[in-house]
């Protein structure tokens, strides 16, 4: 008897179609999950909320590891004292009275309160994730933006110029010969330009979020 003909090898085009269909199916499922009001369309608000939730979920493994280290009481939660105790040991060499520690204590206290959704003074894993990832929690993000403005806004106009925005990370940078302005790298210029959505040469609170 004649040997059976072998199945034709799947061509490149067929493989691409198969992969595209799989990708399309996954995309459809993601769309359904993100479409909060189930109107078949994704608004920018729905998309951004979904992206925040997705990043938060993908980071929970790392969050659990950090929580285990901080949770000295073993109750599965993180208190503000546990959080700051670790910070002081790691950054300030154990000094509770360092001025920088006091500034950071105020910032972390405000972030902690914003992340503590039920107000019980302790952070669960999901609440702690919001503390570590401010972009996943608008309340924590607002605290961070407010702190950035307060510490960098030298002229008090409520906005950050390029020089104000980068000054803290460029204390040793040179100045130009004419106006005494901070010399910025191409990357820093491009980063500021992307953040400056209205192109007015300064960053407001919405642009810093």
Automatic annotation (TrEMBL):
It comes from the Eukaryota. This is EF-hand domain-containing protein. InterPro entries: EF-hand-dom_pair, EF_Hand_1_Ca_BS, EF_hand_dom. It comes from Alexandrium catenella. Keywords: Calcium, Metal-binding, Repeat. GO terms for cellular component: endoplasmic reticulum. Residues 22-57, 58-93, 112-138, 183-209 form the EF-hand domain. PANTHER family: 45 KDA CALCIUM-BINDING PROTEIN (PTHR10827:SF98), RETICULOCALBIN (PTHR10827). GO terms for molecular function: calcium ion binding.
């Amino acid at each position: 008897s004649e040997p059976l003909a072998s199945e034709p090898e799947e061509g490149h085009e067929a493989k691409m179609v198969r992969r595209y269909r799989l990708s399309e199916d996954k995309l459809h499922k993601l769309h359904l999950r993100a479409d909060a009001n189930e109107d078949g369309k994704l608004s920018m608000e729905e998309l951004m909320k979904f992206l925040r939730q997705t990043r938060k979920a993908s980071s929970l493994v790392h969050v659990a590891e950090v929580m285990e280290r901080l949770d000295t009481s073993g109750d599965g939660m993180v208190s503000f004292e546990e959080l700051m105790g670790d910070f002081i040991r790691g950054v300030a060499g154990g000094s509770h009275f360092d001025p920088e520690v006091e500034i950071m204590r105020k910032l972390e206290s405000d972030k902690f309160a914003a992340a503590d959704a039920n107000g019980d003074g302790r952070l669960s894993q999901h609440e702690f994730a919001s503390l570590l990832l401010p972009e996943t929690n608008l309340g924590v993000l607002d605290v961070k933006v407010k702190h950035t403005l307060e510490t960098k806004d030298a002229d008090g106009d409520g906005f950050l110029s390029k020089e104000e925005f980068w000054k803290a990370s460029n204390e040793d940078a040179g100045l130009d010969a004419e106006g005494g302005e901070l010399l910025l790298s191409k990357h820093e210029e491009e980063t500021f330009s992307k953040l400056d959505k209205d192109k007015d040469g300064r960053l407001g609170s919405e642009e810093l979020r």
